[in-house]
Amino acid sequence: MNNQINIRLNLDKPSHRQAQEILLSLPKGQKSDYVMTAVLLLYNSENMLKMVQETIESSILNSPMQMLSQSFTNTKEQQATKTNSNKKEQASSFLNKISSQT
Known about the structure:
Among the domains are: 28-62; 67-102. 79% of the residues lie in helices and 0% in strands. It has three helices and no strands. The termini are far apart.
């Protein structure tokens, strides 16, 4: 089974002309290996970049500063909830006093 891949370069595009020049400068019999190596290098470098980005994002999200910031945010939210709860208790207590006086 012959699984050939043919490509057509558009020589109106500078990058295609440059690719043609590189491919034509290669010795006979090395073009396929060169293209295969280039494709694999690009594919692997894109995957590596994605892994590095995910690692950095994970490190940032799990960093002590991020955890401290999250803790501070949670503390502020807890304080706001406590304050609202205290206000409700005070209002309820006030209303109970008024209703018991009547």
